[in-house]
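Please check this protein record:
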Amino acid sequence: MYVAVLTAGAFFSIFLLLFILGRLVFGIGRNDTEAAIGSKRPLVLGGITEAFAGVLPVTQSKRDSLQADLTRAGYHHRKALAEFLGMRNAAATGWVIFIAAAIVLTTQPGENFSTQFAIFGAVVLLIIFTLPKLTLSALATGRCSRIEYALPDALDMINMMVTGGLPLRRAVERVSAELKTTHPDLACELAIVDHQTEAGSLQQALREFAKRIDAPDVIALASMVQHADRLGGNVAGALRDFSDGVRRTRRQRAEERGNKASVKILFPIVLCLTPPIYVLLLGPGILEMRNFFVKENKTNGMFMQTPDASSLDNLPSR
């Protein structure tokens, strides 16, 4: 009975984790431009999503952190935070109900409940609460890195179009359409910038872009475009210089990481090579000493010889 319940619990916990992580990694609404401008789509749990999201209290700072990670990961839906909390709390609630039912069914009258289920349930419950957050943070970090990696190419394309006489806003719109296949993350953000430019200004849209991504290169881009527009400078030249600067900085960072790697790898090499070196240097000598002691401890060996009577008589007397 215990084995069957534990097996069912293992499969149920794996199903819950795969459900949450699958929705995060392959979920509907990621990089959805229409969701960012206010379109509606059905939630995963329907009308009870917000009810499950409020089952467990979450501090405002925690909510802000989760909302920032969701936005950086590409979930721009206005109910993305409620959907994330709802899925996590629903999975935790279902798991608690399963563990409680398992304890009730496997505990005989007059017996104490098994601590195995309690420990197993607590461990899985901790994983349900921590693993989705870690996955979300990894998705957000990876998406921001991909956006920063694709930014110089997009700026070069915008620069060519602006130099050819296309307005900056139209250039952003065209580049967002061209990058949907090669760089979908940056294409989504540029499409959002284009939609926000329709309601306001390009400078404000770029500031919102920098606020969403919170990456140094994006923040510098928004500041550069704002200064160039306010001072009446050449935007095309500024974009070209900025893209060259981003590539130069990226190359310098790569060289810095390469130089640090040679120093960091020194300690593992020393720790891993020192024992074999000692074995190679001292091993033959230790084996020779071992063979010597084994040989001399045998009969007629150096350590097994006993002095005879004549040698004892020749000893000087005191």
About this structure: Residues 296 and 302 are 5 Å apart (CA to CA). The mean pLDDT is 78. Residues 266-300 form one domain. DSSP finds 13 helices and no strands in the chain.
